[in-house]
Design goal:
174 residues, mainly alpha, two-stranded antiparallel ribbon, 6 helices
Length: 174
């Protein structure tokens, strides 16, 4: 019996089948990134702006998690392309967790995150599987990793902060 399209959209991304245009070996990365984005956007529906930069019990604020997820995708995917970070990326990194001088709303931070996810998915679709084991340097020290290692770590790290965001937002909403 065929499954209705709406039923498929209720499943986690990894259960929806292959993502069109994404190489087979990178399907888990795409699934994880899209699942995390879906969950982040759901957690932040009607989230009170007043709590965006609150650090309950010394934990990172929701604003930090939204900034960090955006930044980590940008940085790790940059390294996967074999590029170094630029000044704008270093500035973004140094400002993660700091409330911006101009009031950034939840929607502003979500727009940045969603845009970065779109860029990541586009990069995945353009990644040749033959390059996955190529060595890439990480950071100023150029610590060796691989294209595959960077892409998988980006997805894992995003999901880790998505879980932390879930806990933090639940604490703050209650």
């Amino acid at each position: 019996m065929p499954m209705a399209e709406s039923d498929n959209n209720k499943r986690e991304f990894w259960l929806r089948g292959p993502m069109p245009g994404i190489p087979p070996l990178l399907q888990p990365v795409a699934h994880t990134i899209l699942q995390a984005r879906d969950e982040v956007n759901r957690y932040m529906i009607d989230f009170p702006e007043i709590f965006l930069w609150v650090k309950p019990g010394g934990m990172a604020s929701p604003g930090f998690h939204l900034q960090h997820i955006t930044g980590i995708l940008d940085r790790l995917f940059t390294y996967a392309r074999g590029e170094s970070l630029n000044e704008q990326q270093f500035t973004f990194l140094s400002n993660e967790g700091n409330e911006p001088e101009r009031n950034a709303s939840v929607n502003d931070l979500l727009d940045m995150l969603n845009s970065q996810v779109d860029k990541a998915i586009q990069q995945l679709s353009n990644t040749d599987e033959a390059t996955l084991t190529e060595v890439r340097g990480v950071g100023r020290a150029q610590i060796p990793s691989t294209v595959q290692g960077l892409l998988f770590h980006a997805a894992e790290h995003m999901m880790r902060h998505t879980g932390q965001l879930l806990v933090t937002t639940r604490i703050l909403k209650n």
